[in-house]
Amino acid sequence: MRFSILLTSLLLCTAPATAQEEWPELSGPYLGQEPPGMEPQVFAPGLISLDDERELNSVFSPDGKIFMFSRVVNGVFKMFYSRLRDDDSWQEPRMAALSKTYPGHSEVDMVFSPDGDWLYFISDRPLKGYSLERHNIWRSKVTPNGLLTPEPLGPEINTAGHDLYPMLVGDGSLYYSANGEETIGARDSYRAQYSNGTFETPVNLGPAINSDMDEGDIYVSPDESYIIHVSSSRPDGLGDGDLYISFKQADGSWGQGVNMGPTINTAGIDYCPMVTPDGKYLFFTRGNDIMWVDAAIIDTYRQ
């Protein structure tokens, strides 16, 4: 979701919830949309990105057969999905059944685990011992029949503050953003090593990624060779929230984050980065719309 919380199951029986009168026949990868070049384009305009709605997040399952995104419904964020049928056609997007459990609460910032077995997301749904005004990280088992009842991550991850935008890398380790004890700014990004079925104590990513401003919405490549994240109010910022990129150095440290410039960033807010599992496209949210661009643009920042 919007990285700084400026907040002012996939079951087939759920009802469609998009605004267009008739869902067209769409087939092929990426809902059959014409791929973008090196200039960002709105993804599936009039189908996913609707004129009078607010959409954000954008994530494909590892096999590319499920597309999920978030939409604001009655003032709260809800998860939607479209599935590629056996006949190679994409079904009309619908709200995930999991998002209907607590109508007045949000489910957003979803990501699949690398093996596709789990969906991680954040929610302010009731959780014993935690304030309803805070978002925690949850996960739900993905089955052929839909999502199972979600479970929260443990107290080593979920804190008294907001815990946001989970990202799983190749070895199962977790990146996310929170107001941790070692926070440099208002909100920082952290990494929790996955070991023996649990997440270890989160480690602050340090000043190359975090600053005395707000950081969050962190995408990390599966091999952890680069990070794309969002920051606000930096001196080199172009708008309310900008995407920055950092590359892993030879010594294992993170290089200083670089603003991705006017091709990606605008005077508004640009956030929710996510690269497709095949590494071909960078998705992100600009204002109220989901955007996508050829991931080859990432290589232009390596210098």
UniProtKB/TrEMBL annotation:
Signal peptide (UniProt feature, chain positions): 1-19
InterPro entries for the chain: 6-blade_b-propeller_TolB-like (IPR011042), WD40 (IPR011659)
Keywords: Signal
Entry keyword annotation includes Signal: yes
Protein's UniProt name: Uncharacterized protein
